[in-house]
Design a protein that fits this description.
This protein is of the alpha/beta class. The chain has a single domain, classed as Ribonuclease Z/Hydroxyacylglutathione hydrolase-like (Metallo-beta-lactamase, Chain A). Helices cover 25% and strands 28% of the residues. It is built from nine helices and 14 strands. The chain has a seven-stranded mixed β-sheet. It is globular and about 45 Å long.
Length: 252
Amino acid sequence: MRLAVLGSGSRGNGMLIEHGQTCLLVDCGFSLRATEQRLAQLGRSGADLAGILVTHEHCDHSRGVKALSDKYAVPVYLTRGTARQRALSALRQVCPIDTRQSFQAGDITVRAVAVSHDAAEPCQYVFEAAGLRVGMLTDLGHAGEDVVQAYADCDALLLEANHDEQLLAAGPYPPALKRRVGGHRGHLSNRQCRQLLERLAPGRLQQLVLAHISEKNNTLAEVAAAMPQERLRRCRVTYAQQHQVLDWLEVQ
């Protein structure tokens, strides 16, 4: 299996996961043109996609979903609650999914995991193929035991480290937005990201991608300093950023 990131942040998100003949796009928060340009940097086009998986309806995750799906006739997988939202209600090829059971998308088995976020029916994803597990986990305010169990024993993990709590408190956001970002249905802080990694005991983790890093309330230096270095000594750590495509990372 392998994964790549089109971009990650409050202005657009997208991740590719690939195994065998199957290439899936998780979220499409960019315009159609920008998505096609970013896919091209990874040697892919919309015609290569076996499916688009949506985590939730917020525009930085859903902006380009309909245009991409319509142009290339790509099926869209999402929860029923997400599908009912205005941004996604006009999709032509909808595949409703349930967070209580896995489903097959080509060569990849996918599990949708319910998370705590300020959206209608948000979820994140774990992908399995050939005995390997790749997890994607962003846009959640806290991680309960069900999330810990779902993401245990991943070989690769894209994980949110959204904000530094002190930078958020002192930053430019209005008070209501600060409460939202730092709240139970907001985003994981660097501290929460570290605590989750410690709970996961990532002994088999080969690749860790730290993602959804705020440009206003975080820095790469703060993220790096917060990570449990001893736990990650055998793991390659990379950072997904807003304006850069993160090239393919192999998981073996």
